[in-house]
């Protein structure tokens, strides 16, 4: 880049931080209300507020198709560069696990805390304000740069799918929804239910989302003394109050399931060891347990570009019927059918049937692709990091929504991933570095 934008980037630091706070105060968790707004008032409010912020910055904006998506655009020309982020967030989970209110952002010790500061409101706005710094520096964009705002990325991607159906598709782009330096491969993401009739006396419900390792589950059923004794024998943490036991785990994103402790799995293992009869509980206890790779079902399932298969039991619901909600991240070279056939066959042994919820095909971009080379060059120039290399990921980002798109930041190497976790935070200085990287990347792609 031949233009000096350092002062302009500095000038955007406080406005960026305050804009993030504006968005985090809006609890944009999906609400399947069936009303006029496709994903509920919170997400619609976040979309409208983001478009308002972009308009104040000087972007042309559009509120798309009744709230399914929105975008903000700058520049001229036929070519379109896309930057794809999302404004919905996963549920906060148990508020007891948070040190602060998840929707009342708190700045402390150089960090900004709140649901969405990392995934994905903070990074999306960092890229938007990066473009604003370029605008203030007098850059004339020879291509159009369009920031596309999705609305149900944490669930079924209906917003971004509607955008692709209705709007012009960018020819190239990135999604600021992962980590640096760049993600050149994303595993296939398969979400499905295992279902069967409930022929037991068990009534149980727990977990927040397919893609989150559950950090707790409440049990109010029979034989609580025996359950407490079994949990003690297994060394599993729990809390007990009159009439209930809460089995404790540790939350994690499903793409990093090995970093969490699945509370549903621990309860299932304890109940199964007590002799409790349930199809879902037996399947979890005997076929999965605490193994985030489900090797009992799939053996060693991995490949060189993207690593091991990841398996997460995100929710359990035993009432009128038995239902497990499961998230699998499939290595990029492994056929989906192979995985579905294996898990379906094992599930049938327990009286459970497979029903697909969602599928996102993998992406894999060679290291010598123009986009990978350009983003790596920019990242290294800004950060001075010449040792980090492109990575693969089990995460699913909007990079899959269009061709020639990859996930690019904003988490710096060595920083812990706190997406979907209680006490989600972003290191502000890191975010400002990301804003600088994005400014240079936008310049390189749009000039």
Structural features, described:
The chain has 447 residues and is of the alpha+beta class. It has two domains: 6-187 and 363-446, Zn peptidases (Aminopeptidase, 3-Layer(aba) Sandwich); 189-219 and 252-357, 2-Layer Sandwich (Alpha-Beta Plaits), CATH 3.30.70.360. 32% of the residues lie in helices and 26% in strands. The protein has twelve helices and 26 strands. The strands form eight sheets. A six-stranded mixed beta sheet has the order 1-2-6-3-7-24. The chain has a five-stranded antiparallel beta sheet with strand order 11-19-20-10-21, with helices on one face. It has a three-stranded antiparallel beta sheet with strand order 4-5-26. β4 (106-108) and β5 (111-113) form a beta hairpin. α2 (13-24) runs antiparallel to α4 (121-136), α6 (224-234) packs across α7 and α7 crosses α8. It is globular, with a radius of gyration of 22 Å. The N and C termini lie close together (10 Å). The mean pLDDT is 96.
Could you say which structural class the secondary elements and strand pairing correspond to? alpha+beta
Give the number of helices.
12
Number of strands: 26
Mean pLDDT: 96
CATH level-four homologous superfamily name of the largest domain: Zn peptidases
Assign an overall shape: globular
| Percentage of β-strand residues | 25-35%
User: What is the terminal separation in angstroms?
Assistant: 10 Å
Q: How many domains, as an integer?
A: 2
What is the highest CATH level, the class of the largest domain?
Alpha Beta
CATH architecture classification name of the largest domain: 3-Layer(aba) Sandwich
Radius of gyration: 22 Å
Question: Roughly what percent helix?
Answer: 25-40%
């Amino acid at each position: 880049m031949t233009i000096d934008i350092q002062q302009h980037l500095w000038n955007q630091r406080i406005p960026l931080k305050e804009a993030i706070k504006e968005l985090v105060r809006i609890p944009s968790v999906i609400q399947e209300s069936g009303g006029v707004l496709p994903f509920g008032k919170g997400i619609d409010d976040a979309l409208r507020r983001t478009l308002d912020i972009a308009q104040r910055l000087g972007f042309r904006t559009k509120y798309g198709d009744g709230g399914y998506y929105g975008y903000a655009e700058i520049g001229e020309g036929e070519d379109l560069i896309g930057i794809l982020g999302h404004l919905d967030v996963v549920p906060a989970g148990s508020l007891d696990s948070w040190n602060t209110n998840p929707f009342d952002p708190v700045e402390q010790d150089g960090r900004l805390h709140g649901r969405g500061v990392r995934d994905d409101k903070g990074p999306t706005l960092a890229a938007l304000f990066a473009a604003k710094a370029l605008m203030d520096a007098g850059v004339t964009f020879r291509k159009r740069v369009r920031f596309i705002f999705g609305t149900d990325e944490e669930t079924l991607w209906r917003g971004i799918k509607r955008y692709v159906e209705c709007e012009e598709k960018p020819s190239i782009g990135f999604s600021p929804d992962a980590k640096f330096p760049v993600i050149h491969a994303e595993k296939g993401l398969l979400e499905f239910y295992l279902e069967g009739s409930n022929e037991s006396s068990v009534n149980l419900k727990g977990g927040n989302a397919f893609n989150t390792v559950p950090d707790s589950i409440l049990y109010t059923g029979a034989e609580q003394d025996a359950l407490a004794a079994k949990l003690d024998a297994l060394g599993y943490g729990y809390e007990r109050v009159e009439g209930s036991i809460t089995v404790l785990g540790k939350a994690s994103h499903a793409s990093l399931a090995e970093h969490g402790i699945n509370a549903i799995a621990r309860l299932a293992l304890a109940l199964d060891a007590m002799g409790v009869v349930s199809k879902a509980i037996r399947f979890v206890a005997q076929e999965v347990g605490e193994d985030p790779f489900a090797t009992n079902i799939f053996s060693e399932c991995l490949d060189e570009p993207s690593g091991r298969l990841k398996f997460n039991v995100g929710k359990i619901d035993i009432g009128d019927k038995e239902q497990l909600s499961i998230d699998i991240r499939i290595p990029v070279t492994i056929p989906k059918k192979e995985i579905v056939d294996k898990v379906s066959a094992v599930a049938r042994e327990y009286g459970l049937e497979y029903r697909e919820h969602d599928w996102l095909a993998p992406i894999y971009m060679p290291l010598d692709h123009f986009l990978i080379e350009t983003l790596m060059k920019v990242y290294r120039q800004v950060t001075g990091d010449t040792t980090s290399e492109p990575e693969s990921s089990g995460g699913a980002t909007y990079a899959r929504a269009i061709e020639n798109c990859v996930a690019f930041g904003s988490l710096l190497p060595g920083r812990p991933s706190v997406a979907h976790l209680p006490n989600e935070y972003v290191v502000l200085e890191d975010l400002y570095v990301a804003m600088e990287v994005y400014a240079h990347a936008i310049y390189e792609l749009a000039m």
